[in-house]
Design goal:
There is one protein chain. With about 475 residues, the protein is an alpha+beta fold. The protein folds into three domains: about 60-285, Thrombin, subunit H, CATH 2.40.10; about 290-385, PDZ domain (Pdz3 Domain), CATH 2.30.42.10; about 395-485, Roll (Pdz3 Domain). It is built from 13 helices and 28 strands. It is flat, with a radius of gyration of 27 Å.
């Protein structure tokens, strides 16, 4: 670490020296002229420099003044015991943490009292619809939205999709300032961008940079084609907007690459079209569905391309095919290379998962595949990724809110392993269920002796129940009934 610091210091000195030399050289150039040449007025030189500077460095002041009021600070309150329980289940030891990690708003100490965090968001409709990151409001008992004019509103979490890390909130207000939505596809690498948010709780902080790359695939987030930027993004910026120079939002600041937890020049934003798709699904259906092809893929390098008889590397090489998945039913095999997905060319393997995830499950798509040395087209009916929408984050008054759990269906493998035909897995718990002793990892098999087969059925059964319910829960190898007084 000392060696790194020393090198940086030396580089800084060298750069400073270069600027000093440049300044001296410029002064000499202004005073020394060839014989017979006319003197150049200083005013002309000054105008030329000013013109070059204004062209190279854009002024963000008007953009911030116009669109900054639509950016909000989000404060969340958690049950610290619940958060500690989740963190102990999901998080490795500090030394085991990979460099790629989500930026949680603030550290959450394991105490008996409430813990608090701060994030960012932005208003997308004048009647109070707000977008932010799912991890900003995860496990929140209370969410407060603060505007730039210092008004505060209690927010309802309409839905939270962890696959894309997007959450939709609503506040009870009218005639609010809103952002304009841009087109991430039209964004070019190298363009200027502006991030506005609340890093470390410092609301309406503005930072700027450029788009460093597009369609980045991060470990564990293959469904999102991230926009990479070098705009300063720190804990608390999560959920805030990334603007282009037209004042349009092209992304939601979501993740950072850091070895210290702070800014290091590499940040990632969720493309706004992905977020708007999540918003639409949550508003219309109360949950989010993502397409699944059922393959594991890898990059095609030069050696593999030559081995397969391809003219050049490209596409997504199928390494394995899930049994009974969409790809298996379409006849795909290990060794096939997917070159196009529904007419869109696949240059790199990382481009395929986001395209599949955005397709509505049940849709039939056309795949162009390199198979045994020749091209062929196949039709595939897209399957569905296991639901990762936080059911407990549904609108206020929803049945799961009374129970206080976030659940998901069991995978076929989990059903076989546990030797059960139905039930739903508890992923997070709070409120009435937590008080009764329900724990993450429990499988809810029945409500008042009625078998539970899906999150939707659980919602229906809880909604029809009285003040108390009897949950049949499988925990490890034991089954127990847990009485719950509903909230």
């Amino acid at each position: 670490m000392q060696a790194k610091t020393l090198r940086r210091s030396l580089v800084a000195v060298a750069v400073a020296g270069a600027f000093a030399v440049g300044a001296i050289t410029a002064e000499k150039a202004a005073t020394i002229k060839p014989a017979g040449a006319a003197a150049t007025p200083a005013s002309v030189i000054g105008a030329a420099v000013a013109g070059a500077t204004s062209t190279a460095l854009p002024d963000f002041a008007d953009l911030v003044a116009k669109h900054g009021p639509a950016v909000v600070q989000i404060s969340v309150t958690h049950d610290a015991r619940k958060v500690a329980q989740r963190d102990s289940r999901d998080m490795p030891g500090r030394d085991e943490l990979p460099p790629w990690f989500r930026q949680f708003p603030t550290p959450r100490p394991p105490s008996d009292g409430p813990s608090r965090g701060v994030g960012s968001g932005f208003i997308v409709s004048a009647d109070g619809m707000v977008l932010t990151n799912a991890h900003v409001v995860a496990d929140a008992d209370e969410v407060t939205v603060r505007l730039t004019d210092r008004r505060e509103f209690k927010a309802k979490v309409l839905g939270s999709d962890r696959t894309t890390d997007v959450a939709v909130l609503r506040i009870d207000a009218k005639d609010l300032p809103t952002v304009r939505i841009g087109n991430p596809e039209a964004t070019r690498v190298g363009e200027w961008v502006v991030a506005i948010g609340a890093p470390y709780g410092l609301d309406n902080t503005v930072t700027a940079g450029i788009v460093s790359a597009k369609s980045r695939a991060l470990p564990g987030d293959a469904a999102v084609p991230f926009i990479q930027t070098d705009a300063a993004v720190n804990p608390g910026n999560s959920g805030g907007p990334l603007f282009n120079l037209k004042g349009e939002v092209i992304g939601i600041n979501s993740q950072i690459f850091s070895r210290t937890g702070g800014f290091q020049g590499v940040a990632f934003a969720i493309p706004i079209d992905v977020a708007m798709n999540v918003r639409e699904q949550i508003q219309q259906h109360g949950k989010v569905r993502h397409g699944r092809l059922g393959v594991s893929i890898q990059e095609v390098d030069q050696a593999l391309a030559e081995n397969f008889g391809m003219k050049q590397p490209g596409g997504a090489l199928v390494g394995a095919v899930a049994k009974d998945g969409a790809a298996a039913k379409a006849g795909l095999e290990p060794g096939d290379v997917i070159l196009k997905f529904d007419g869109k060319a696949i240059a790199r393997s990382s481009e395929l998962p986001p395209l599949v995830a955005q397709v509505k499950p049940g849709t039939t798509v056309t795949l162009e595949v390199w198979h045994d040395g020749s091209l062929k087209e196949v039709k595939a009916k897209v399957g569905e990724i296991e639901e990762r929408t936080d059911v407990a984050s549904a609108a206020e008054g929803a049945a799961q809110g009374k129970l206080g759990v976030a659940v998901r269906p069991l995978s076929p493998e989990e059903k076989r392993s546990a030797n059960i035909a139905g039930g739903v897995v508890v992923e997070d718990v709070g409120g009435a269920a937590a008080k009764a002793g329900v724990q993450p990892g429990d499988v809810i098999l029945s409500v008042n002796r009625t078998p539970v087969k899906s999150p939707e059925q659980l919602k229906e059964l809880i909604g029809k129940s009285g003040k108390t319910v009897a949950l049949l829960v499988q925990r490890d190898d034991a089954r127990i009934f847990i009485p719950v007084t509903l909230g």
